[in-house]
Task: inverse folding
């Protein structure tokens, strides 16, 4: 089931690096990779539609893994 | 005449060995002296003493470190002559010790320019010196591995370096980078690309494997915890560092079926999965210790797979010992280990990370990189679990108990940041060796060649049953004595038990053409038999087959950390040997094989037990 989340893209310093989406309610999601490179910019305000991948584990372990379906940039 | 010559040679050898035993720290250099004033002295009394030394010798005393004031420890410049003078002076009565302040050196980092250049991020040069022991590895970047010193790893290496243990690294794969070239690998698998070659294309798994078993003492790069253990590389995560529960569950089963002793999973996330839980239970039933990272979202409770009951969940600590800012905590955290923080209050802080050799995923080249994360904490525990397994403790439950019991407890850990406490490799290996049961003792006897089925079959040269009774008897006496004066079982003690009771008796039956047989008889003799090996008879020499040798050993080695246990063990061993000899009416030189000989052996056996009992009681009081 797809969900829509608005928040800020942030890089996370785990391993060689990972990307997170910090939602307005404080929840942190890990962006499932590979993801569009236009999305992966520190500080980018975005609205992302995607699904939570319950079957995926990662080295970053920063939150639920979010597989991006589409996104739109709210603010650069 | 020949006999006399052999005796002469034996005693010359014995005296030489004793004379050349230099004690523990006699060879160090020093140009200063450390003075430890008695704890009961007031600050005023100490101050007046310091002033008197200042004026008498024209020297100034300084605190050794910021902690020294509390401990009343001072240092002053001086050599052996001054040391002797001070020890004889009035000062002796007011101090706990006046000792040479030995100089230790760390290999300068400047020796490894090519590696420093490979570091991502600028690691500041270290200027201070840290104490080194004979087990301090010569890896030039070891000085920056605060995380290994935090575990007391060097003391643990005195016991084991993980030889014979297989650690499965379920991760992004492992590449044999330069500083893993000397590390042993076993066959692994790449579950992402379905092939046997499980090379790393991310850099995470290679780093994790480095913490566990980086090639150490190779004069290059950094060190690892259980560097004689073998790595089983299992790739389940893609080059982006993510992977499916199905692949991970499969990898766990692969590890269990292919002889892994420990599994490290520096990964997490997702929901509960019965597939994964079953795999973990399966591996656990097969005796595999499963360790997983608690997660990096600074949330209350560990993520999966760390939160499964059969997995050991590991939270991460920063260099200052606090919980790392990112580490999960609470339910599911069993123990804490260094995970590092590469981002400090003032921005980037590579020195606060965990430094290992890995690959640059963009170029594939070998680099040294500091990482942070519970991913880094987990392999610390996996490495120490490997050391525990190598010490002889095999069951996962027992390994977890040792990890927990040996950890450094944290007071007021209300939110369970640290589980049982901070991981301590030295205490863990100590405890592991001390908790061995009789199965472990006999496994150890077998592994060390004391018990060998081939010699059992070919045992004509020695009366085998009394020998086995002697070893068994010594073990039972030791077990009984431990009930009264608890002590930690250790290998020196085991060696003592064997050498005192039966010796390496298999050697007694060894003959080589054209070589005299007496050296083998000497090697194959227990302590009580040493007095008669030269004569080739089985009659015991009453000087050796008595309490005299154990007394001498106990007196000689009472101050030595390992040898004192050999002395106590051999005293118990001799007791068992003499008791069995008395029961089997063994002949004693000059006394025959009648009542006089039996009484002599019996009384000496009892005396040996008393000596061992007294020594163990003294040890227990000392603790």
Result:
């Amino acid at each position: 089931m797809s969900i829509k989340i608005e928040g800020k893209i942030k890089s996370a310093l785990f391993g060689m690096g990972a990307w997170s989406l910090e939602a307005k309610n404080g929840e942190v999601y890990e962006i499932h990779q590979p993801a569009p490179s236009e999305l992966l910019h520190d500080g980018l305000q975005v609205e992302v539609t995607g699904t939570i991948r319950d079957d995926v584990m990662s080295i970053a372990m920063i939150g639920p893994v979010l597989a991006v379906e589409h996104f739109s940039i709210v603010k650069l | 005449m020949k006999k006399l010559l052999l005796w002469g040679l034996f005693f010359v050898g014995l005296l030489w060995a004793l004379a050349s035993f230099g004690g523990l720290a006699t060879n160090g250099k020093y140009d200063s002296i450390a003075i430890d004033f008695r704890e009961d002295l007031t600050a005023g009394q100490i101050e007046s003493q310091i002033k008197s030394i200042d004026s008498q010798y024209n020297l100034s005393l300084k605190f050794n470190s910021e902690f020294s004031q509390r401990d009343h420890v001072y240092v002053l410049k001086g050599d052996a002559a001054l040391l002797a003078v001070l020890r004889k002076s009035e000062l002796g009565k007011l101090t706990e010790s006046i000792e040479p302040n030995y100089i230790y050196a760390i290999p300068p980092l400047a020796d490894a320019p090519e590696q420093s250049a490979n570091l991502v991020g600028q690691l500041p040069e270290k200027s201070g010196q840290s104490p080194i022991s004979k087990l301090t590895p010569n890896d030039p970047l070891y000085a920056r591995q605060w995380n290994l010193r935090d575990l007391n790893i060097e003391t643990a290496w005195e016991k084991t370096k993980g030889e014979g243990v297989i650690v499965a690294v379920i991760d992004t794969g492992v590449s044999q980078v330069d500083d893993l070239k000397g590390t042993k690998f076993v066959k692994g698998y790449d579950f992402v690309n379905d092939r046997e070659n499980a090379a790393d294309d991310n850099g995470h798994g290679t780093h994790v494997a480095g913490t566990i078993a980086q090639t150490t003492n190779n004069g290059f790069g950094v060190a690892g915890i259980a560097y004689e253990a073998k790595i089983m590389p299992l790739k389940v995560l893609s080059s982006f560092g993510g992977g499916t529960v199905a692949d991970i569950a499969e990898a766990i089963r692969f590890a269990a079926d292919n002889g892994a002793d420990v599994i490290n999973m520096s990964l997490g996330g997702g929901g509960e999965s019965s597939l994964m839980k079953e795999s973990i239970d399966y591996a656990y039933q097969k005796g595999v210790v499963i360790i997983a990272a608690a997660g990096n979202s600074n949330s209350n409770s560990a993520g999966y797979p760390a939160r499964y009951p059969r997995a050991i969940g590991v939270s991460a600590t920063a260099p200052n010992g606090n919980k790392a800012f990112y580490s999960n905590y609470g339910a599911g955290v069993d123990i804490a280990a260094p995970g590092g923080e590469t981002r400090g209050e003032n921005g980037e802080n590579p020195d606060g990370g965990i430094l290992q050799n890995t690959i640059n995923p963009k170029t594939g080249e070998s680099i040294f990189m500091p990482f942070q994360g519970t991913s880094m904490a987990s392999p610390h525990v996996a490495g120490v679990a490997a050391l525990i397994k190598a010490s002889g403790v095999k069951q996962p439950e027992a390994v977890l108990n040792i990890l927990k019991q040996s950890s450094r407890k944290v007071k007021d850990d209300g939110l369970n940041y640290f589980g049982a406490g901070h991981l301590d490799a030295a205490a863990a290996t100590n405890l592991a060796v001390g908790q061995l049961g009789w199965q472990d003792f006999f496994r150890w006897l077998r592994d060390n060649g004391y018990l060998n089925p081939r010699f059992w079959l070919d045992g004509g040269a020695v009366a085998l049953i009394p020998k086995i009774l002697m070893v068994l008897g010594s073990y039972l006496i030791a077990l009984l004595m431990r009930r009264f004066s608890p002590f930690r079982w250790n290998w020196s003690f085991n060696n003592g038990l064997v050498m005192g009771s039966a010796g390496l008796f298999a050697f007694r039956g060894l003959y080589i053409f054209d070589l005299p047989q007496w050296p083998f008889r000497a090697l194959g003799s227990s302590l009580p038999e040493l007095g008669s090996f030269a004569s080739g008879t089985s009659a015991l020499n009453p000087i050796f087959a008595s309490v005299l040798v154990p007394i001498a050993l106990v007196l000689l080695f009472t101050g030595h950390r390992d040898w004192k246990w050999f002395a106590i063990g051999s005293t118990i061993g001799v007791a068992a040997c003499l008791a069995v000899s008395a029961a089997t009416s063994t002949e004693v030189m000059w006394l025959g094989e009648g009542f006089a000989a039996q009484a002599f052996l019996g009384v000496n056996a009892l005396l040996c037990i008393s000596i061992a009992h007294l020594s163990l009681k003294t040890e227990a009081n000392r603790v």
